[in-house]
## 1
Amino acid sequence: MPEYRLTNEEISTMVDTSDEWIMQRIGIKERRIMKEEGKATSDMGAEAVKELLKKTNTRAEEVDLLICATITPDMNFPATANIIAHKVGIHNAWSYDLNAACSGFIFTLVTAAQFIESGRYRKVIVVGADMMSSITNYKDRNTCALFGDAGTAVMLEPTIEEAGVMDYIHHVDGLGRHHLHMKAGGSLKPASCETVENQEHFVYQEGQTVFKAAVSGMADVAAEIMKRHKLKADDVAWLVPHQANLRIIDATARRMGVSKDKVMINIEKYGNTTAATIPLCLYDFEKQLKKGDNIILAAFGAGFTWGSVYLKWAYNTV
């Protein structure tokens, strides 16, 4: 995570808002922002991968595949995953990016699991990284308080135990593109002097529409995967929801019947880091996790994309 903390007090000097309003409506106190010149999403992702390799005592040449979930790539091409692999010395693997916005981590996690389950690969790294400050308009009161920057990484390996990614339910609805997107910069509307002047290279969001869709989408799919596996609220050790809005998180927990003490929440410290929110929660709460814990991951993102993952934690932490 970047060191710089952008507080609600500082945001209130940019737009007409206040700490009280942001905390009440969203639940964010501060967010980390990448301020260093010449730094980008790949730098945060690379630092996370370096920590992961050290933590798991893995050599870079042992990695078979690296997939990066991001909507803020260093550049349109090549893939940010390729840049991360180069920066950390992963030369024997192939890599690519996956774009599913705030659902990016769970979509990528499930994708990576297929490569492990195929039997062809033994070590696959999933990176969730976004430098959302690069596409946030700090003159837009509706969005400037929402986002932060972070890079995260997890490793998947084969096991003969009943652990890891047990099941998933994912959905998309392309109609949602009208309500949450970046207007310019793609092939539909390439960058021009006009698009820059009109500030069309920032996140555009219709808040109420997205909020309603996120509440129903995340809550329903999390409850659905519990029902599929006959999991009662008592059987679930943790709900790990995408950290976009505290009210959406609360609604998802209520729909599942899970008490708040079983919900991982760190939105107050980091804001919405899109593809990084769920693994960032796992990082913060790792010491509380036990082998065999039933964990439900749930997310909703632009596109629209949404889904849930039933994860059984694979190791004890010290």
## 2
Amino acid sequence: MASELGIDETGPLHLLVPVLPLEEVCLFPEASLKVVVSRPAILKTLEIAGRTGRKVVALAQKESSTPLVFDAKDLHAVGTLAEITADHPVPDGTHRVDLDGLRRVRVVEWVGAETLVAETAPLDEGDSGDEWGPAVEALARYLHTHADLRSFLEQQRRSAEPMSWVNLACQHLPITATARQRLLESDAPARCLRISRGLDALLRKEQGS
């Protein structure tokens, strides 16, 4: 157990971090996300994170409900360790929060009641190898017909690495929340393979062929 929220002394790669639930969206590594926080339990999460390194684990909700208090059954166990890069209080009591995704993690233990804290373990991304090439090509074909989305992704891109481009696309493509979570739960080779197959199928569907 860690003496404070941070590196767990019993496992150097395990972190104890407060949980930030996300509704209808996932945060991917090397991608950014802006969220508005209003629920008291999540505002408490921000308060804890502000005192302990500005790190949270961003976990997608399983359902699009809005419980006042979350527990483990409401959230997926695979999410993304994130850094809070901005936290702006608004006069109406909400907070506008900017998150930068760092790496995929899995929850290994839940802690807390009104405010969830999770012990997380990092997930191996694997080597995307030859899979990222077809994924980037499929993404280029899709974005060729969606200029607005391409412009948006180019503005959001934080890294020149191909996987950063793939991860950013996974976060913002017009797919279901379930499909997005499956992409997040896949390692880099599997994610690239899903993107290369899925985007061409999506493009054919949109074009009616």
## 3
Amino acid sequence: MSSRREQKEALRREREQREKEAQAAQARKRMVGYGGGFVLVLAVVAVLVFALAGGDDSSGNVDPDVLPGGGSVPEQKEFDLTKAAAAAGCKLRDVKASGSFDHTTDPNERVKYNSNPPTSGRHYVIPADDGAYSTAPTDEQLVHELEHGRVIIWFKPSLPKDTRADLLALFDEDSYQLVLTPRANMPYQVAASAWNGTPEPSGLGRLITCKSVQPEMWDALRAFRDEHRSNGPEPVP
């Protein structure tokens, strides 16, 4: 028990250090590539488009029919990502990355990504917000989240109600730089993706995919989350 707590505390300290580094990097890179006035116009348009698209997040707007409350997840036992994934029957995959800092300004433009769910690529200039969603933002908004060092957990909305409740409980356990969103058109029950900033110039996409939900999956998702968040090519706190 003590060892597990010490491991989690060590991970938390590492995360806090990455936050400080990300803040410094963001101060240097803020608004790179386009003028502040142009970005302000785009931000207003993006907010309107996202509102019209019906996006919702964890700030009280989640549809309980999609992500019900009352779930729970077991205490973490395995902290090593490779071991946790193997125990859960989930697959780890690296995906060649592209599109770092490559933005589209058209909210209706759809990008063809090289994995499902996506891990990197050209993306919309305004990212989605961190949070839990019952209606998914566009892939282009979500990929921008990945570029900023977020981890996205994707789930089939057809999963049993209890499993969806447990996924929300996992999200609520530690939601820092995390997105939880449905994805009906993927060949997995649950997956998670991230975009690492190394190697340069575009980094490397990371993916864990689970074709079935096993008790060990929760530790696999936790280990993936802790290993890959805050590591995007454009670190943003």
## 4
Amino acid sequence: MNQINIDEATILLVDDSPTNLKVLTGAITSCGWEILVATEGETAIELAEYAKPDLILLDVMMPGIDGFETCCRLKANPGTCDIPVIFMTALSDTVDKVKGLSLGAVDYITKPFQQEEVIARARLHLRLSLLTKQYAEQNSLLKQEISERCAAEAALQQLTDELERRVEERTAELQSALHRLQQTQVQLVQTEKMSALGQLVAGVAHEINNPVGSLAGNLNYIEIYTNGMLELLNIYKKQFPDAGGEIESKIEALDLEFLMGDLPQLLTSMKAGTERLRNISTSLRVFSRADTGATVAFNIHEGIDSTLLILKHRLKANKKRPAIKIITEYGDLPMVECYPGQLNQVFMNLIANAIDALDELSQGYSFDELIARPNTITVRTDLNSDGTHAIIFIKDNGPGMTGEVQDRAFDHFFTTKTVGFGTGLGLYIARQIVEEKHQGRLRCISAPGEGAEFIIELPVEAPPGGGESNSDSEENPDRCAYIPNRSIPVWQK
């Protein structure tokens, strides 16, 4: 958690003794804290890196790597180095205690445990961790205030040519450093967020693909078997028109005529549903592609299509407006050497902004008026005249922008959305990705009442220094479907 709430803290218990774990769990549960448990060091390291607990109670003597080695690895990992560690051991030797504290532990608890002592020490170190983070935040604010005051004092000293020159140089250095710092902060936050999202989406897509493959494969055989049985029933009806009272009664109870007509339609609907799931899975995997250190050849249209599919729920009709119509006019684009994951992020930001603009515009019209004047987003692609750059046009027929808003649209933290609905980072990051990462160009054309059009220009071949082009292959999902090991029946061939 970003800010520790002591009453809702998460504590990782690491001990190979079930008895100790039971005692500690009983004591800690009474405080309302969430508990994670590991019985050996390797598991504890993985769990700590994944769950980011607020405190770790670590046994020293364990099978595999002991508590000292586990602590060393936790402190060497940037993702877990700030988590406070309290050692638990039956060793009372001062040398062992000093060794544990020198490795980065914050405290030492000697077995057998006193529950009140464990709770008190845990609560103390949770509070110390909270105060440390608060101090860091306050220190950051203080540094920012000092920096601003220095800049103001430097401006006041511009009374002579020499002082003016020094102030200008210093101001330029500070502005450059601040700009680099802002860029680094934004990139780190966004990279971490997109990395987590990409891993989640890729995992979901992978898990969807397995059962969908099973359904799709088996539905083909079910359709073949069903058609065969229906043909067989028709032959029986022709050969034995007088089936007998019991069979006629069953036919009437089943409503056989309706069943024979409806069953193929049900199978067709199920096949369409599985194909839809397969398309969703493919789009999720395309959208969540992890970028490597080098550019790769990428089909821009696949990235746009996957983004549109992910945003499809936002395009549907709702109580306030009809569905937003998507118009795609794709040109004949070659594969573009780029960072696919980052470009998909740009497409996501621009199309999501277009949807927001159309939602805002819809508030000023009745539902009937919106039907007569449908909301549209047009995505068009083309090559420039000499074929060196791919151009993507994303245009909406929303409210448009004033000249003042258009001039500031790509500024850091600038947004026209209400509080809680925009961070002012989307277009700023999009321009960084297009222009700094890909050496391309991103611009906007808009006027009030005429919608907005964003134009992305990307070099087809990565510029020198942009990294070597690598081929990218998707990992094939594990095959877990049951497919009957039979040939197609003769009547189906």
